[in-house]
Specification:
It comes from Cyprinus carpio carpio. By secondary structure, the protein is of the alpha+beta class. The chain folds into 2 domains: 11-204 and 214-373, YVTN repeat-like/Quinoprotein amine dehydrogenase (Methylamine Dehydrogenase, Chain H); 443-515. The protein has a 6-stranded antiparallel sheet with strand order 6-7-8-9-36-35. A 5-stranded mixed sheet has the order 2-3-4-5-34, with no helix packed on it.
Length: 515
């Protein structure tokens, strides 16, 4: 561990979701946070102070998983409506959508090269998709019950099933998840059949099964180096397996209810978990102990995620809150560590994988001395960010048209495989008349009670505001690029100064020796 240890702190509190927050992921440049919810909406939170948030409308049921592509140009979301959507995380709100499974899609994740997607579903299958050509590649079918999570090595997708019963929230932890490994050679998946499975993407065969669970396996993911997988269970446990020796090396029982989600710190030294006991726990994997218990959510914690650089982590839960925390507890240079990890995932030679210690199988339970953190969530300094809703129809006539017909009008197929491109809904308002059942037409003025001249004026104002919004977004991007270039220049200047000092020191030593 680092010599200097500081407690995590609550940085920001985002309000915008109207229901349970089920998933979260940071953008690769750590400037955006994506969250999905039972309110069927995807939110993109800009982490710049006072920046607006975007609400993306499109899914017709609970969003179960969300993941940024490696270059940050796309956001994938999975839903109980059996579809996966690929969004452009900007004001334009463009998306493509395809029906991925015959049942609820529990998770979605990009491979590390951004060329593939892995999805897991209640139809008991894990599927791999090509992103560029937007086509199905192959299935992995061996689970005998719902698949909660499936992941490529170093990639993770999670989805807790959330059911509303008589006004109260009932949580089912039998989730289907899948994850890619960091080098893309493996996929890990878990499900309600109480197994965690490891798949070879080349042979498409299941190469290992971990079955040491007293309940459903709820979440699975690879550590940053790809040597280990961790899995959590409805039996309150969290386990870490060495996939080289197929042995259980760490076993934590630190929560008092089922563990719904977890996230590895990019260094591989820490792990944060979220549970139905309303707490988050931070584990030191090198020392094999619990170091922090974090409070702040009222109800089950269903989503946790570290940022790519490890400086931040986010959490979401049944209370509809999205909290963003600063880690503070480690001062290692993770940019250096991550660059080493990236070198290890080259196909030739095979990656040298980092060890997790201790190597012996033993249980870790909560110990005295664990730091309890109780932030004051309601009085955070950041107010509610302004939310821009993307894809909402102005002067909607949804009360006249059925939801299905409106959906079919928006989504126009572009391939025989079921992929569609969704236009921004503002474009559809160019039509001045709406068609009613039976072939009759009616003008907007009749429905809205607003004169057409005022309608036209308001629409022109909205269009101008959209242009201004896009212009500001472009300026923000250029400012960001300028800041990045300036930071690079400053780093180079520091290196040059260090080299100059070394040269001057060498010259002085040489002069001293000559004298």
């Amino acid at each position: 561990m680092a010599s200097v240890m500081e407690d995590p702190t609550l940085e920001r509190h985002f309000k915008g979701h109207k229901d349970v927050v089920s998933c979260a992921d940071f953008s690769p440049n750590n400037k955006q946070l994506a969250t999905g919810s039972c309110d069927k909406n995807l939110m993109i939170w800009n982490l710049t102070p006072k920046a607006r948030a975007f609400r993306f409308v499109g899914h017709t049921d609970i969003i179960t998983g969300v993941h940024f592509s490696p270059n940050g140009s796309l956001v994938a979301s999975s839903s109980r409506d059996q579809t996966v959507r690929l969004w452009t995380p900007s004001i334009k709100g463009e998306s493509t959508v395809f029906k991925a499974h015959t049942a609820s899609v529990r998770s979605v994740q990009f491979s590390s090269d951004g060329q593939r997607l892995v999805t897991a579903s209640d139809d008991k299958s894990v599927k791999v998709w090509g992103v560029e050509r937007k086509k199905f590649l192959y299935s992995l079918n061996r689970h005998t019950n719902w698949v909660r999570c499936a992941r490529y090595e170093t990639m993770c997708v999670s989805f807790p099933v959330l059911l509303h019963k008589v006004g109260s929230l009932s949580l089912s932890l039998g989730l289907s998840l899948s994850r890619f490994s960091p080098d893309g050679r493996l996929v890990a998946s878990c499900g309600d059949d109480r197994t965690v499975r490891l798949w070879d993407t080349s042979s498409r065969q299941c190469i290992n099964i971990f079955t040491d669970y007293g309940g459903s396996a709820t979440f699975v993911d690879f550590n940053s180096s790809g040597t280990c997988i961790a899995s959590s269970g409805a039996d309150n446990t969290l386990k870490i397996w060495d996939i080289r020796t197929n042995k259980l090396i760490q076993h934590y029982i630190v929560h008092s209810a089922g563990v719904n989600c977890f996230s590895f710190h990019p260094s591989g030294n820490y792990l944060i978990s979220g549970s139905s006991d309303s707490t988050m726990k931070i584990l030191d994997l090198l020392e094999g102990r619990l170091i922090y218990t974090l409070h702040g959510h009222k109800g089950p914690v269903l989503a946790v995620a570290f940022s790519r650089d490890g400086d931040l982590f986010a959490s979401g839960g049944a209370d509809s809150q999205v909290l963003m925390w600063k880690t503070n507890f480690d001062s290692l240079n993770y940019k250096v560590l991550l660059s080493r990890h990236r070198k290890r995932v080259t196909p030739d030679p095979p990656p040298h994988l980092m060890d997790i210690y201790p190597r012996s199988h033993h249980r870790h339970s909560a110990q005295n001395g664990t730091v309890e953190i109780h932030p004051i969530v309601a009085d955070t300094q950041s107010g509610d960010p302004q939310v821009v809703e993307v894809g909402r129809v102005l002067f909607s006539t949804a009360d006249v048209r059925s939801h299905d017909s409106a959906t079919s009008r928006r989504d126009q197929p572009i391939s025989s495989l079921g992929w569609t491109h969704t236009r921004p809904r503002e474009e559809e308002d160019e039509d001045q008349h709406e068609r009613l059942p039976g072939g009759m037409t009616t003008s907007r003025e009749e429905h809205s009670g607003i004169p057409s001249s005022l309608n036209s004026t308001l629409e022109n104002i909205v269009q101008q505001l959209d242009i201004l919004t896009q212009t500001v977004a472009v300026l923000e991007e250029r400012l960001t690029l300028t800041e990045d270039k300036l930071r690079t220049c400053l780093d180079n200047q520091v290196l040059l100064l260090q080299q100059t000092q070394q040269i001057d020191g060498s010259d002085q030593e040489a002069e001293g020796q000559s004298l």
